[in-house]
Design brief:
It is a single chain. By secondary structure, the chain is of the alpha+beta class. The protein is built from three helices and four strands. It has helices at 19-31, 65-73, 75-85; strands spanning 2-10, 40-45, 56-62, 88-96. Strands 2-3-1-4 form a four-stranded antiparallel sheet. Helix 1 (19-31) runs antiparallel to helix 3 (75-85). The chain is globular.
Length: 97
């Protein structure tokens, strides 16, 4: 199994209540039901107000490297990630567990 973690940081001046941000979050909330390679999927907004905290997190799991590649290339993932590119930066960690 491979854990896929992503942390998103909204760009300066971007608010999570903006319609485009809410639409992008919705796209990720729905992604778990659209990509068959995902064996585990959760995402949520950060609830703490700390300077080092990121704003949105994805925690997911896939079976293997081929499944991870399929997930990353899936059109629904590409569309959702494309929305976030407009207003956020992120970091990713993929590791076996």
């Amino acid at each position: 199994m491979i854990r896929h973690l992503v942390l998103f940081k909204l760009n300066e001046g971007v608010d999570r209540d903006e319609p485009r941000v809410q639409a992008a979050a919705k796209a990720f909330f729905e992604l778990g039901d659209l990509v068959p390679e995902l064996e585990f999927w959760e995402c949520a907004w950060n609830i703490t107000d700390r300077p080092i905290a990121y704003d949105f997190a994805i925690n997911s799991a896939v079976a293997d490297a081929d499944s991870l590649k399929s997930y990353i290339e899936h059109p629904a993932h590409q569309a959702a990630a494309g929305q976030w590119r407009e207003f956020a930066t992120w970091i990713i960690a993929d590791y076996p567990f």
